[in-house]
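Lab notebook page, bench 4
Experiment: in silico fold of construct C2
Operator: M.H.
Input chain length: 588 residues
Purpose: comparison with the prior construct
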Amino acid sequence: MSPLQRAHRNALEASNAARELTFRAAIDRSMAEIAADPSAVAPYRRLARQLRDTGQADEALDVLRQGMRDAVVDAAFVRRVAVDLLDAGHGEEALAVLDATAPRFPLDAELVLLRRLAFPSVFRDSGEPARWRERLSRGLASLSLDDPELAALPHAALIDATLRFNPYYVDYLGDVSRDLHDAWGDWLARLLSASASTGAAPMEGATPAPRAADSRIRIGIVGDTLRAHVVSELFVGWATALDRTRFDLRCYALHTESDRMSQAFEAASSRFVQSPDTAVLRAAIVEDQPRVLLYLAVGMSSAVLELAAQRLAPVQCAAWGHPRTTGLPTIDYFLGSDAMEPPGAAAHYRERLVRLPGLGTTFRLPDALRPLHINRRADFGLCDDDVVLLCAQNVSKFLPSFDTVLIDIARRVPASRFVFAVGHQRGGTVLRQRIARAFEHAGLDWSRHEVALPELTPLEFDNLVCVADALLDPDGWSAGYTAVNAVAFGLPIVCRPGAVARTRQSAAILTLLGETRTIAASASAYVEIVERIAHDTAFVASVRASLTAPERRERLASDPRAQAALQAFLESAVSRVTADADACAPAV
């Protein structure tokens, strides 16, 4: 390491040490408060948050458990405990907490819904996904405005609790999950339709807004990711490349951050409204009367869901920034990627599927690292002769079905090291324990193959990509921007596309690059590809050269067909809804 690199590293370490001292002092104060009065609930909540912020997720759960035993708890604390247990993969324990304490708070809408709809984000064994899916299906079927328990709840609180539920992890319960999303979307739509006083009810038969004075079509982009975020990295091109002679763009950002990305959206807009308050954005949208609303990553944010569940424009669309159906009857189109969608994919969506060419977007590949920022394997606890296999996804994406793939790789490649960047993810411990049990059952030692890293900065993650031998795509949910990152640094991606778009993102990216040699048709082929990467240096060099070929990368990131098709769709969708409105207009 050069003197400049060492100075840079020392500065980072000093900054982290100072941050740790600050947190340590806060943790000590919270512990002292608990010792002084074990019945007070606030210090438990505060200490758990402080421990999570310092990467001590398991210790945070222990504090919450202690609070349940010793403190006088309120409904908010019970909710926190149940949600954190579910996020950490302790599903049965969360249900036990809810069953024991939720009846004490019969008017807390979120606790009522949690008891019916809860399921963990990480699974302990191969049978859990099916069991929890069945339980969730029954819970969704039980939701009715005539149900006595639900009818007793304040209606506004029930709407808020439904939005907070946000079935983000539903798609880890099985390949095709449209039925679950549709049931949830119908329930939310019924709640909003019955809410005459909130002003949030969907507008029946919305009339197309008048054209702007200059005859351009007014388009709105809505999201909480119009900032430095992986979704915006992929979709900012929709805004910046929009033809200003044909479209008038307005953007509605559900956040307060101002950064390079938010400024790009603002510069592309004739109006940029920024607020974390959905009422503020709703008022702006109603005032602007866009003819089309494009919602980015609907399923990732309860606030975006709240707006998307309303009829605020004649044409409403969701984008594949979150590649699954919204389940909402208020979203007319799903703008997907033709390269990702399998045959028959229209059946996976409640919305009408629009297959935009290629990835359907244009974007900029990440830049190469500067020499100052380059790490070595030793900086991550890795050796030069290790076969470094990066498992860089959210821990929820690693379903039990993938454990056998890891086992087969470990058998065929004894030097394999599976690198999980578990960071502050609450389900990391349950995932690692599950894989360790599977390895032990197979006669293998998981500790010889696992590398669990703490939370990484974006720069550290890029360095990890640079020193790895391959990115392993799990079968629960394929890499999106992580795959783009891997391609940018020439890292081979081993993937096996599944039955739905969310399992096919990496395969789509590789196919568009013309590099399909690391796309597996089966689990056994997946293992064989990893084995070849481990032993065939010429093959790896060839794959890396293919991924980094300038003409191929340009074809992937700057496909001119995508923006042209998007703009043609926007015009045709507005034309159709205008024609329908004219046909339904009474004769004069």
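Observations: The two ends are 81 Å apart (CA to CA). The mean pLDDT is 90.
Next step: discuss at group meeting.
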